[in-house]
Specification:
With about 675 residues, the protein is mainly beta. The protein contains seven helices and 38 strands. The chain has one domain: Maltoporin, Chain A (Beta Barrel), CATH 2.40.170. The radius of gyration is 25 Å and the shape is globular. The relative contact order is 0.12. The N terminus is likely disordered.
C-alpha cells in the first residue's frame, strides 16, 4: 500500500459550494446520531459531559475532564502526556494502551494494533461539543481494543456559535481558541496553546485545526471533516525516592532535560447517509496519518524512536426500525502501514558493564507492518419481550492480519551483524512473518422500563489483539512471540433513574481477563496472565434548588491477579495480590451554584484512595484529596469571564506512583496550586 498524506487540509479547501436537496438541520441530526455512542442506545454503562460544562471547565488536559466520569482515571504526565485506566488499573507495557479505544465522532483515531499511550492528545477534546465514555467491553460494536472501555470525542456541529476564547495561567500558559462558521454548512475550529511547564524543561507547544462541511449529493447527505494536530513536548519523567514528590524544589527537577516527544496527526473522513422510511444507510470513508519522534529517556543509551503510520478504511452501516425492534448491521474495512526505527546515537559507557555491552550504538530496530482488518457486525436493539422488558444483543466477527517485514539483520546482533557481549545484544529482531487474529465478540442483555427507573443486566465479551510493539519489538533471546488476543468477559447489573430532583446511575460489574500480556522473569513477552476485576460505579445529580445542583461520581474497584509468576521487574505475582496502580476508591463531588442570572460558582472535591505501587503489594502510595473552584461571570450578551483555581490548598501529591526494583519509589509530581483566567467572546 503506497499513498501519501502530506497537507491533507488541501482536500478540505472545499470544492463544492453545496447543492441543498434537504434541510441542513436534518443532516446535522443524522450525523450527530451516527457520531455519538448513544447510537448504541442500549449500552447502559455510558456517561457523557456536555458542551456547557466543557466550556466552563476550560480544560488544558484530558484529566480535568474525565475525573468527572465514573470508572475512569486519566493520570497526568508531562504536558499533554497521560495514561488511561477504565475499570482497570493503570496498565503499562508496550501494548497496554490497546486495552482502550479512542474515537472521534465514532471513528477510531488510530488503526488496530498501533495504539498510542497518549492517544487523547491527538483528539480535539479542548473544543468538543461533548465527550462520552463506555466503561466495560464494547468490542461487540466497536471491535478490537474496546476491551476495557471506549472514549469518544464529539465535534461541534457546524451550526455552533462563532466564538473566540483565550485562557492564561501559570508557567507562561496561554491558549487561544477560535470558532468561525457561516452557521449553515461549514466551520473552522482552531486551538493553539503553549506552556513552559511547572517542572524544568517540561513545556509544550500545541496546535489543532478542524474543518467541517455538510452538504447533499443527489439523495445522500454528506459530512466532511478534517483534523490536524501537532505537539512539540518536552518530557520530564519520574522523581525517585520515598515521598520525593513532597519536596517542592525536588519535584520540579527534570533529570532528563533532553527528552522530548514530537507528534503530529492528520485525519479526513467523509460520511454519506441516506434515510428511507424506517432505514438509515451510512457509508463512512476515512484516511489517517501519524508521525512521532520520541526520545526514550527511560532506557540506558536513550535511543530515539521514530514511527509513523498511514491508514485508510470504510465503514458501511444500516439501521432498520421494525415494529418490535431495531436491527443494526455493518461492515468495516481498515488497511494500515506502520514504520518504526529505533536508533542509539552514542555508545553507552556510563552504565553497568552488561548495559554497556548489550545496548550498542547504532540502529536497534527497523521494520514495517501492513495490517488488514475486516469486521462484520450485527445487533438487535429494543426487542420487545413484553410491556416492560426489552432485549438487546450484538455480535461481531473480526479478522486481523499483520504482515511484518524486518529491514535489518534478524536476531540479537548489532546493526552490522556482529555479536554483543553477555550472550547477545539486548535488542532482538524477528524474521519476516505473518500473524492472524480472528475474534468473535458478543453482548446480550435485558432492560426494564418502569416510568422513571430502568434496571438492566448484560454480559459482554471484549478483546484486544497483541499490539505491534508486543509482537515484533523483542528483547534479549526471544526470537519470536506466539501471542493470543487478550479477552475480557464482564457481567454487569445496574439501574438508571430520574426521580424529580434526583437522577443518575448505579452499576455493579465483575470481569475476568485471560491471556493477559506481560514481560516474564526472562524478559520474554508472554500471554499467560489472568486477572479479576469487580467494582461499583455511582453517578448522582441532585437538584437542591433552582440555583444549586450537587453532582457526584464514586468508583469502587477491586482488581487482582489470578496467576503466579516472577516478572522482569523482579516482582513476585501471587494469586490474590492486588494489581498495582489500582486505587480502590475514586470520587468526585461538585457543587454548582448560580448566584444570579449572570454569575455562577462551582466547587469541586477530587479524591483518590491509596494503592499498591508494586505487584508484590510491598509498597504503597497514600492517596490524596484535592479541592478546585471556578467562577463564571457573564459581562454582556457577548462576553464571559472565567476564573479557575486548581488545588486550592496547594496539596503535594503524585499524579501517579509506582515502585521499580531498579529505581525504588517513583512519582510523577502533581501540579501545585494554579490560577487561570479566561475570556470568551461570541460573535
Amino acid at each position: 500500500m503506497k499513498f501519501k498524506f502530506k497537507n491533507l487540509t488541501i482536500i478540505l479547501l472545499f470544492i463544492v459550494n453545496v447543492l441543498f436537496s434537504k434541510e441542513l438541520e436534518e443532516i446535522i441530526v443524522i450525523e450527530k446520531k451516527l457520531s455519538s455512542l448513544n447510537g448504541w442506545s442500549n449500552n447502559q454503562s455510558i456517561s457523557s459531559i456536555d458542551e456547557q460544562e466543557l466550556n466552563e471547565l476550560g480544560a488544558q488536559h484530558p484529566k480535568q475532564i474525565f475525573r468527572r466520569s465514573p470508572g475512569l482515571w486519566i493520570s497526568r504526565g508531562s504536558g499533554q502526556e497521560h495514561l488511561t485506566a477504565i475499570r482497570s488499573p493503570v496498565l503499562s507495557g508496550p501494548g497496554a494502551c490497546g486495552s482502550f479505544l479512542v474515537l472521534e465522532d465514532g471513528l477510531p483515531v488510530r488503526p488496530t494494533g498501533f495504539c498510542n499511550v497518549n492517544g487523547l492528545f491527538e483528539t480535539f477534546f479542548e473544543m468538543a461539543s461533548g465527550v462520552e465514555t463506555i466503561t466495560g467491553p464494547a468490542s461487540a460494536r466497536y471491535g478490537a481494543n474496546a476491551m476495557h472501555g471506549v472514549i469518544n470525542i464529539l465535534s461541534k456541529p457546524v451550526t455552533s456559535e462563532n466564538k473566540f476564547y483565550t485562557n492564561i495561567g501559570p508557567n507562561n500558559y496561554k491558549n487561544f481558541q477560535i470558532r468561525t462558521s457561516n452557521q449553515e454548512d461549514w466551520s473552522f475550529d482552531g486551538h493553539f496553546a503553549n506552556n513552559d511547564g511547572f517542572r524544568n524543561e517540561s513545556g509544550y507547544d500545541q496546535q489543532k485545526i478542524k474543518i467541517q462541511s455538510i452538504f447533499s449529493v443527489s439523495s445522500w447527505d454528506a459530512a466532511l471533516k478534517a483534523t490536524l494536530t501537532n505537539l512539540n513536548q518536552e518530557t520530564a519523567g519520574y522523581v525517585n525516592g520515598l515521598d520525593s514528590y513532597k519536596n517542592e524544589e525536588f519535584s520540579k527537577r527534570n533529570f532528563n532535560p533532553d527528552a522530548y516527544r514530537d507528534a503530529n496527526s492528520q485525519r479526513v473522513s467523509l460520511r454519506l447517509t441516506k434515510e428511507d422510511k424506517n432505514t438509515v444507510n451510512s457509508i463512512t470513508s476515512y484516511i489517517r496519518s501519524n508521525d512521532m519522534k520520541f526520545f526514550q529517556h527511560f532506557l540506558p543509551g536513550t535511543p530515539l524512536e521514530e514511527n509513523n503510520h498511514k491508514s485508510l478504511g470504510i465503514n458501511l452501516q444500516r439501521i432498520s426500525e421494525y415494529n418490535s425492534f431495531t436491527f443494526v448491521q455493518g461492515l468495516q474495512l481498515d488497511f494500515a502501514k506502520v514504520e518504526l526505527t529505533e536508533t542509539q546515537k552514542e555508545a553507552l559507557t556510563t552504565s553497568s558493564a552488561f548495559n554497556n555491552a548489550t545496548r550498542p550504538q547504532g540502529k536497534h530496530y527497523d521494520y514495517e507492518v501492513d495490517s488488514t482488518v475486516i469486521a462484520l457486525f450485527a445487533g438487535i436493539e429494543d426487542y420487545i419481550l413484553n410491556k416492560n422488558l426489552n432485549l438487546f444483543a450484538d455480535t461481531r466477527a473480526e479478522f486481523i492480519k499483520y504482515d511484518y517485514s524486518n529491514n535489518m539483520i534478524s536476531g540479537n546482533t548489532r546493526e552490522d551483524g556482529s555479536k554483543c557481549g553477555f550472550g547477545g545484544c539486548y535488542y532482538n529482531r524477528p524474521s519476516d512473518r505473518t500473524d492472524d487474529f480472528n475474534e468473535i465478540s458478543a453482548r446480550i442483555g435485558v432492560i426494564t422500563n418502569y416510568e422513571s427507573v430502568n434496571y438492566f443486566a448484560q454480559i459482554s465479551l471484549g478483546f484486544r489483539p497483541p499490539q505491534i510493539n508486543e509482537a515484533y519489538r523483542l528483547q534479549k533471546k526471544q526470537n519470536v512471540t506466539d501471542l493470543d488476543s487478550e479477552t475480557l468477559t464482564m457481567l454487569e447489573v445496574g439501574t438508571r433513574y430520574d426521580w424529580q430532583s434526583l437522577s443518575g446511575s448505579l452499576s455493579l460489574y465483575q470481569s475476568k481477563k485471560k491471556n493477559s500480556i506481560f514481560r516474564d522473569s526472562e524478559n520474554f513477552i508472554v500471554d499467560n496472565g489472568k486477572t479479576d476485576h469487580k467494582g461499583i460505579e455511582l453517578s448522582l445529580d441532585w437538584i437542591i434548588s433552582s440555583n444549586n445542583i450537587v453532582s457526584t461520581n464514586i468508583t469502587y474497584g477491586d482488581h487482582k491477579y489470578d496467576f503466579e509468576t516472577d516478572t522482569s521487574m523482579r516482582e513476585k505475582i501471587r494469586v490474590g495480590n492486588e494489581i498495582d496502580t489500582a486505587p480502590k476508591m475514586m470520587a468526585n463531588l461538585i457543587l454548582n451554584s448560580s448566584l444570579n442570572e449572570d454569575t455562577s460558582f462551582a466547587f469541586e472535591i477530587e479524591h483518590m484512595s491509596s494503592y499498591y505501587t508494586d505487584a508484590a503489594n510491598l509498597h504503597e502510595y497514600e492517596g490524596h484529596t484535592l479541592y478546585h473552584a471556578r467562577f463564571t461571570r457573564k459581562m454582556s450578551d457577548t462576553f464571559k469571564t472565567y476564573i479557575r483555581v486548581d488545588n486550592i490548598f496547594d496539596k503535594a501529591y503524585a499524579e501517579r506512583a509506582d515502585f521499580n526494583a531498579f529505581g525504588g519509589d517513583r512519582y510523577f509530581p502533581g501540579l501545585p496550586r494554579e490560577f487561570y483566567i479566561g475570556l470568551e467572546y461570541t460573535f
